[in-house]
Write a structure and sequence with these properties.
The structure holds 2 protein chains of 2 kinds. Chain A has helices at 5-26, 52-62, 92-104, 122-128, 131-137, 169-172, 194-197, 204-207, 212-216, 219-229, 265-276, 284-289; strands at 39-45, 72-77, 109-114, 142-144, 150-154, 164-168, 176-180, 182-186, 190-192, 234-244, 252-262, 301-305. By secondary structure, chain A is α/β, with parallel strands linked by helices. Chain B has one domain (2-332): Alpha/alpha barrel (Glycosyltransferase), CATH 1.50.10. Chain B is built from 15 helices and 6 strands. Classes of the chains: A alpha/beta, B mainly alpha.
C-alpha cells in the first residue's frame, strides 16, 4: 500500500518529534573524547609520611617521562577542613615533595591551589594542617581558589543542567594540572579521589561554602562536567593514611600505605577504588568518565611499581554505597 | 593597648539619615589605640589595594572587584569619612543588579548572590544609596532557601534525612535555588534589621528575621557553635567553625541568654584564644564584643600576628581594621550594643 501524502507528512512529523525527544538520551553528553589509548599507573608503598617521600616520589615520577619543562604546574591537594583527629587532607609532606620534584623536572613555576569546600577561612586550614609554614619555607605560592579571579567557562559536558561555571583563572591558565586527592570514602559520592577532588576548583566566593549548587545538580554529574572542563594531566593520590566510612570529614583513619600516581584520572581512581575493595564500574562518575575522560579497564592500564592488591577488608562506606563492594 | 570611647552623639536628624538607620545613637568616635603601627600599616595596605573604579579585589594580585571585599573594605575605611569610602559606595551602587541584588563580583551574572546583605550594610547611612539599599532589601525578602518550597520541605522531612535539620526553619542561600546556610542567613538578618521601614511590602521583615533566627538555632552544632550549616550528618557530629560561629552570634546578639547562644559563646571564647588565623580571630572579636565579652587580650593577639598587612586576602585586612575598632564596627554592622 502506498501511503498518502497526508499520512507521510504526519508520520515524518511524528518521527522528527520522537527523535528530538529521545536524542538527548542517546547522544553523548561530552564534547570530546580525551582518552589515551593506554594509561599508566604506579602504586608506591610507603607506611608513613617521612622525608623518604621525596626520593620515592621523584624516582617514580621519572617513570612517566612528563613534559613539564617550562610549564606552569598547579598542584591541587584536597584541603577540606581541619581536625587533629582525622586524616581529612592530603598530607603537606607529599605536596611539598611533589612541588620539589616538578621544580627539578624544569617546571616554570609550581603553584599549590585549593578552594576548601567547607571551611571559609582557608588560612586557618593552611596553618592548622601544617601547610602554611612548609609552603613559606619552600617559597611555594598558594592560591585560594575560593577567592581567585573568575572567568566564565563553558562546560565541556552536559551531565548537569548548567551550561557554564565561573572558574578560577589560576586553574584555567595552568599548563599542567595535578590532582592530589586524599583517598577517602565519601558519603555523597561513594569515593573522593582525583576526579571528585576537582570540585575544589569551583569558587566558594561565587557558589558558597559548601558549593551547594553542585549538590543540587548532582554530585556525580558535577564531577563529570568539571573534569571535562578542567583537564587533569596527572594524579598523585595520598593513600598512606586514607579514610573510610563517613568521609570526607567524619570517617575513620584507615592506614593503606600507598601512593597512587597516574597520567589519567579515571585510571588513577579506578585503581584507588580497587585498592579500597570497590568495583570501579559501580561508581557512577568513573563508569561515565570511562566513556571520554580515561581508561577504567585493567586491560588498558599499564601498571608500574606494585600490583593492585585487593584489601582483606574493603573500606567501610555509608549504607547507600554498599553496592560498590567488589564481588 | 586600650580603647577609648571619646564621645557619643545622636544620629543626624536629617530625614535621609533617619530613614537609613534604626539605632538611636551612633558612636561618633571610638578610637582603638591598639598597636597603632600595625593597624596603620594594615589600613594603609587596604587603601592601597583599592581599584581605580572604587572596588576591592579579593586577592592582592587580582583586578576583579569582589563585592564581599568591597563591602567589608568600605565599612573599614568608612569608619571615618574618606574619599575611599565614597568611591566604594558609588561603586557598589553602580554594580547593583537590575533585580535589586548584588553580584558576587564585577562582571558576574545578574541573578544575585549572598553578598547582597553585605552591600546593603555597607551602604547604610548613605543618602544617595537609599533606593539601591531598599531594592536590595526587597530582593532579600524574596530570596529564600529551597526549603521555602513545600515540595523540598516534604522531601527533606520524608526521604532525605541524612543531614539532621528542620526544613520548616529556613533562611537564606548563598545563591538562589539552593538550600539555606548559616552565613548568608546571619548576614541577611543583620541587613534586614537595618531596614529603614516596614512599608512598601516589607511588612514581613520581622517574620523572616524570626524564621532565620529559628533556623540558626536549629543548625547549631551539638555543644555549641556553627559550621556552614551541617551540625549532624549520618549521625556524626561535625565540628563548629570560629568564623561561622562568630557571624551567627552577631545576628543573635539580642538572644544572649538563649542556651544555644551561651554554649556557642563559651566555645568561641575558648577557641579564639588559640586562633592564629586573622580572619577567624577578627570575626571572633566582633562577636564576643557584641555579647559583652572581654576582647582586649584577643585584640593584642590579633595585632601580634605576623605579616598582617602582607596577607593576600583583602577581606582579612578589612576585618582586622573592623575588629580593631569594634565599637563603631558593630554599630555599622547593625549590632545594637
Amino acid at each position: 500500500m502506498i501511503p498518502s501524502r497526508r499520512s507521510f507528512l504526519v508520520g515524518s512529523a511524528a518521527l522528527a518529534a520522537g527523535a528530538s525527544v529521545s536524542a538527548p538520551f542517546f547522544l553523548p553528553k561530552y564534547h570530546s573524547d580525551r582518552r589515551a589509548k593506554r594509561s599508566r599507573v604506579a602504586i608506591l608503598h610507603l607506611d608513613q609520611y617521612s622525608q623518604r617521600i621525596d626520593e620515592v616520589l621523584a624516582s617514580a615520577l621519572r617513570l612517566f617521562r612528563m613534559a613539564v619543562q617550562g610549564k606552569s604546574v598547579v598542584l591541587k591537594p584536597n584541603l577540606v577542613d581541619y581536625s587533629p583527629r582525622n586524616a581529612i587532607n592530603t598530607h603537606p609532606t607529599l605536596v611539598l615533595a611533589a612541588a620539589e620534584s616538578f621544580r627539578r623536572m624544569g617546571a616554570k613555576c609550581v603553584i599549590v591551589a585549593e578552594g576548601p569546600g567547607h571551611q571559609r577561612d582557608t588560612q586557618l586550614v593552611l596553618s592548622e594542617s601544617g601547610y602554611q609554614e612548609s609552603l613559606r619555607a619552600d617559597a611555594i605560592p598558594f592560591v585560594d581558589l575560593n577567592r581567585d579571579e573568575l572567568v566564565r567557562t563553558q562546560l565541556r559536558a552536559s551531565y548537569m543542567r548548567m551550561k557554564s561555571l565561573w572558574l578560577p583563572r589560576t586553574v584555567l591558565e595552568a599548563d599542567f594540572m595535578v590532582s592530589m586527592p586524599k583517598i577517602k570514602s565519601h558519603h555523597w559520592a561513594g569515593v573522593t579521589l582525583s576526579m571528585k577532588n576537582m570540585l575544589g576548583t569551583v569558587p566558594g566566593s561565587r557558589y558558597g561554602w559548601p558549593k551547594n549548587i553542585l549538590h543540587w545538580n548532582g554530585i556525580q554529574e558535577s564531577i563529570l562536567d568539571v573534569c571535562a572542563t578542567i583537564p587533569v594531566h596527572f594524579v598523585i593520590a595520598d593513600g598512606i593514611m586514607a579514610m573510610e566510612g563517613n568521609g570526607p570529614l567524619n570517617g575513620k583513619a584507615r592506614p593503606l600505605g600507598k601512593i597512587v600516581l597516574a597520567d589519567d584520572p579515571v585510571a588513577a581512581d579506578a585503581t584507588c577504588a580497587r585498592l579500597m575493595g570497590f568495583e570501579p564500574e559501580r561508581i557512577v562518575h568513573l563508569r561515565e568518565g570511562a566513556k571520554f575522560l580515561g581508561n577504567i579497564s585493567p586491560a588498558l592500564i599499564d601498571q608500574v611499581g606494585e600490583a593492585v592488591t585487593l584489601p582483606t577488608t574493603p573500606f567501610d562506606v555509608v549504607p547507600e554505597f554498599r553496592h560498590l563492594y567488589a564481588g | 593597648m586600650h580603647r577609648e570611647l571619646l564621645a557619643f552623639r545622636p544620629a543626624s536628624p536629617s530625614w535621609a539619615i533617619s530613614l537609613l538607620t534604626v539605632e538611636p545613637f551612633r558612636i561618633k568616635s571610638a578610637a582603638v589605640k591598639s598597636d597603632g603601627v600595625v593597624l596603620t600599616g594594615v589600613m594603609a595596605e587596604l587603601r592601597r589595594r583599592q581599584l581605580p573604579a572604587g572596588g576591592w579585589a579579593a586577592l592582592r594580585a587580582s583586578v576583579q572587584a569582589s563585592v564581599e571585599s568591597t563591602s567589608l573594605a568600605a565599612l573599614a575605611v568608612g569608619l571615618d569619612d574618606s574619599d575611599e569610602a565614597r568611591l566604594a559606595q558609588e561603586f557598589l551602587v553602580r554594580v547593583q543588579n537590575p533585580n535589586g541584588s548584588w553580584p558576587a563580583f564585577s562582571g558576574d551574572d545578574r541573578d544575585g548572590a549572598w553578598v547582597t546583605s553585605l552591600a546593603s550594610i555597607a551602604l547604610r547611612d548613605i543618602g544617595m544609596a537609599i533606593p539601591a539599599r531598599l531594592s536590595g532589601i526587597h530582593w532579600l525578602m524574596k530570596c529564600e532557601g529551597k526549603e521555602g518550597n513545600w515540595f523540598w520541605r516534604w522531601k527533606f522531612l520524608t526521604t532525605d534525612r541524612r543531614v539532621r535539620f528542620d526544613p520548616d526553619k529556613f533562611g537564606w542561600p548563598w545563591i538562589p535555588d539552593t538550600s539555606s546556610w548559616v552565613v548568608p542567613t546571619a548576614l541577611a538578618i543583620l541587613a534586614l534589621r537595618q531596614a529603614p521601614c516596614s512599608c512598601g511590602g516589607l511588612g514581613d521583615i520581622p517574620f523572616r528575621i524570626n524564621l532565620g533566627i529559628e533556623m540558626l538555632m536549629d543548625r547549631a552544632c551539638r555543644g555549641g557553635g556553627w559550621n556552614a550549616g551541617n551540625g549532624v550528618v549520618y549521625g556524626s557530629t561535625l565540628a563548629p567553625h570560629p568564623d561561622d560561629t562568630a557571624i551567627a552570634l552577631l545576628a543573635l546578639n539580642n538572644r544572649t541568654e538563649h542556651p544555644v547562644v551561651q554554649a556557642s559563646l563559651k566555645w568561641l571564647e575558648r577557641t579564639a584564644q588559640t586562633l592564629t588565623a586573622p580572619w577567624s580571630l577578627a570575626w571572633a572579636i566582633l562577636a564576643l564584643a557584641a555579647h559583652g565579652r572581654a576582647v582586649a587580650a584577643l585584640l593584642t593577639s590579633l595585632m601580634d600576628l605576623p605579616h598582617l598587612s602582607g596577607r593576600d586576602d583583602t577581606c582579612t585586612l578589612a576585618l582586622v581594621c573592623l575588629a580593631a575598632d569594634y565599637p563603631r564596627s558593630l554599630v555599622a554592622l547593625g549590632v545594637n550594643l
